[in-house]
Every structure is written in structure tokens, then in C-alpha cells.
Amino acid sequence: MRWWRVVGLLSGTSLDGIDVAAAELRLDGETVELRPLGCATSDYPADLREQLRSALPPGPLDAAGLCRLDTLVGQAFADAARLGVDLAGGEADFVASLGQTIYHWVEGGRARGTLQVGQPAWIAEATGIPVISDLRTRDVAAAGHGAPLAGVLDSLWLEDDGPKPQVALNIGGIANITVVGGEHPLAYDTGPGNALIDLAAQQRTGTPQDTDGALAASGSVREDLLNILLADAYYRSPAPKSTGKEHFNSAHLARALDELGDEVDDGDLLATLTELTARTIADACRAEGAERVVAAGGGVRNPVLLAALRRHLDVPVLVSDDLGMPADSKEALLTALLGFLTWHGLPGNTPGTTGAAGPRILGSITPGATGLRLPEPATTQPRRLIMRSAATN
């Protein structure tokens, strides 16, 4: 029952940098124990961030551009991995990387493919330790959506804690929920989280986000525009389902504004998009009969969004920090957990949440500087996750 020191890396659809978390994990029968060691964000260089923004749909991307991005993002993730090893005290057993999603191919309500860049060989070369990457594709190949993968962490972490059913919510560029304690395992993307808010802030002010919801607070919700946005068929499609900036992007927003045919000032636009995110999340939580909502992700740092969400829900809405799970690094810790499960030969998907045909061991392993030595595969699937303090032995 040794502790394994793991570095978790990912960059979400907001493109605001690479989230880094170092943690120790160990497996004790049906229990995974997780002890955070530190977290940070490694910023993308400004020119690389702009290249990524331009490559996302509806922007064009050819093979040369894809090759460059896979390399440059891999090198940026290698720098982030070095930071993660430092957070781990200068030594780690392996790195787990979810990479940077460039395209998530959904057609006819089914995920057909998914593409993340951030070539893991650069990480392995920079750190000398193994890298577990490409963690979504096996689930997609098994008829799942490959997203959201948070279901495995949320179900282990919250199954024995709190009222039933409850919803674990992540508000990144895209918002997703996991229903814990319901009749069936369930997780899905509800729609835009920060994606349209960030897009509008960039278009209208030249800044990449509406910091503290200040622009939204200065305006009023335009119900006419909100109704056009809410008419999108995605919100009424059944779970399991997933989405991304392939759908909720600049073209999507432009179509809605064109249909409105009226000028919308900056504050009103941001207020309306913030309300859209809150309303669609709340609708999903109510539909699942949530008795409590536990939120994480960058969106919880937007007080206007969080207040709107609480206004639309008549159940407690907590931030995951309240229960010992760092809201800012939850997804990076999820990545570390996914890598840990793969390292031990255990499935990392929750089939009822993604729609996969069954449990699958996720990802591919890139060896480090020395021979690859995996532990003996575990024979018991974990049923719970316990968060430990960094000071706990």
C-alpha cells in the first residue's frame, strides 16, 4: 500500500493555461486515498495561446498547423510537468496528461472521435519519467463520449457523503455535471460554462474573461436574446452527451445576434450569457432531482454566475473547497487519479456516465528514461475516494 507520487496536467477549453497538480495516491482495497501536494497554473506563451484560439472551430487547421501545435503544446506541457515535479518535492513516479482538446467530433448524438494535442514524448524527455496520456479515446472507441470523465472521481468521492441524489458540477469552458446517488450513474455536458462569456469579453473588450463578472454586473439580461440562445437543440438532447467549442463558438453567438437583429451593449451581452450558463446548469440539476450541488472549476470564481446559479436552485450550492476538494485544481487532480487507475490496470471510465459499452483501462503510456516497471495489476475496483491533508501520514 505504498503512496505513488503523481503529476496531473490538463488545459481546458478556456485556454487560460495548463493546470498542474501534484498529489500522492495509494490504493487500499476498495479505497483510493488522495493527498494533494500542490497546484499551479502554467501560462501558455501569448503567441501559442493565440494559435490555439485560431485553430479551434470554426477556424481552419491544416496538417502543418496541427503538427506544430502538437509539438508546441507538448513542449509547454513539458515545462508544466517540471513545475509539477517541483511541487511534488522534486520527485514523481509518473505524469498523467489530458492534453489540450482541439476537436471533439460529435455527430448524430454520438461521439465519433476526439483529438487532444500535447505530444507526451516531450514530457517524458523533459522529466525522465513515464507519461500516461490520450485518456479519452478508448472510451470513445467503446461507444462512449470520452467526456466528461469526472464521473469516476465524483462517484468515488461523494457516494458516501451528503444527500442523495447530489450533483457534482464543473464550470470550465464547458459545464458538466455528475449525478451521484441517483437511480443510475450519469454525467454529461450541460452546455457552455465560461466559453461564450469569455468569447464575448474578448470580442467586446479585448480581455480574455469577464473578471469577477464585472461586465455582467453592469448590464441587464436581454430576455429576447436569451430565448434565442435557449432554443438550441443541445439542451434538450438526452444524456449521455458531450459538446465543446465545435458547437458553442463565435459562429454560434453570431447566429444568435443576427437572429435578434438588434444592437446589444457590452454589459447586457455578458449579463445574458452569464444567465444562459446559470439557467442551463440549473435546469439540468433540477431535472436530475439534485438535493445538493457541489461546484468546482474556474466559473465558481465568478460571483455573478454563482449568485445566478443559487438564485435558480432551491437546494444548497457549495463550492468543492467546502468539502476538502480544491475547486481550482479538481480537474488536474482528476487527471492524476485517471493516470493512477491506468497505472494499476484499473478502468478509468464510468460506463453509465459516458455511455461506453463497458469499463475500459484508459490511455497510452510513454516510458521515461529507464525501463517501464508497472505495479502488479490491482484486482479490486475502488468504491470510494478519501481526501487526505498534505500533513496526514
TrEMBL record:
Keyword Transferase applies: yes
Task performed by this protein: Catalyzes the specific phosphorylation of 1,6-anhydro-N-acetylmuramic acid (anhMurNAc) with the simultaneous cleavage of the 1,6-anhydro ring, generating MurNAc-6-P. Is required for the utilization of anhMurNAc either imported from the medium or derived from its own cell wall murein, and thus plays a role in cell wall recycling.
Keyword Nucleus: no
Record field: catalytic activity: 1,6-anhydro-N-acetyl-beta-muramate + ATP + H2O = N-acetyl-D-muramate 6-phosphate + ADP + H(+)
Annotated metabolic or biological route of this protein: Amino-sugar metabolism; 1,6-anhydro-N-acetylmuramate degradation; Cell wall biogenesis; peptidoglycan recycling
InterPro entries xrefs: Anhydro_N_Ac-Mur_kinase, ATPase_NBD
E.C. code: 2.7.1.170
Keywords, in A-Z order: ATP-binding, Carbohydrate metabolism, Kinase, Nucleotide-binding, Transferase
GO terms for MF: kinase activity
HAMAP family recorded: AnhMurNAc_kinase
Family: Belongs to the anhydro-N-acetylmuramic acid kinase family.
Ligand binding (ATP): 12-19
Protein name (Swiss-Prot/TrEMBL): Anhydro-N-acetylmuramic acid kinase
SUPFAM superfamilies registered for this protein in UniProt: Actin-like ATPase domain
